[in-house]
Amino acid sequence: MTESFIDYTLSRIAEQNPLHFKKVRKNLRKMGQEQGFEKQAKEFYDKYDSFLSELGKNREYAVDSYLRMITDVMVETVAFENTGEYTSKSFEEVNQRVYANPLIMDYYMHGLLMSQFLWTHHFAVLQYYITNLPKYKSEVRNYLEVGGGHGLYVNEATRCFGSSADINVIDISETSLAMARYFVESKKVNFIHSDVFKYFPERKYDFITMGEVLEHVEEPVALLKKLHELLSESGTVFITTPTNAPAIDHLYLFRNAADIHRVIDEAGFRVESELKVYAEDVPEELAEQLKITLMYAAFLKKK
Hints:
alpha/beta
């Protein structure tokens, strides 16, 4: 019988990074208790397996890319602990360091893809989105996703709204769009290669999703204000963003949920519901003290 992607991943991580293996194994045991995890993870990694084959790559490359990303995070974390700041300060700096460097960008994107069902906070946010999305089904005729990435969110949107809504994905990166196209199941999705700030559609959107983008820009308020312009008056925005999450392409530092709330408020939104999940399974007081990454997700409405 062919070894599953997750089993291969665990064995490879155990060989290359035994300490991180313990963390991933713990995460998988915890997530494995959640309904739907095994099915969702298998669907995703089966699709990723095929994607790797089309690129002429293999599982070994994927896991090694993930471990390279983990090393990057460790280096960035040490710097963050010493300075209290992210190492990159401008988009141009990140562009030269990461986005314009194909060698780094390639392994980094694959590493991020690998993390989707290896990190508990990523899975928790996805489940929160899936659980709450049907509440908006009757209201949505026009859907926009800013940054396609792994395609998990837009896939759920097509399943929930697809029969009655136009589904659109916009991204400034052709590489990211190409990846999203592969992972998105529906052929009805319209992919738009553009800077969202230069995007002026004829219609407003009833629902906008933007997962883990705010931390990549210099001015998150300006980005949320752009979404405010694109959103219909009764529409909904779903966002996710982390606090205290040093990475090679993170720019804007949210130190806590209150920082995120201020940005949301300044952009003209109110929180309808929210989820806060720490990356480590420790008490909240200790997590705040140690500046453990908090993954924040929320459904927003116009004020």
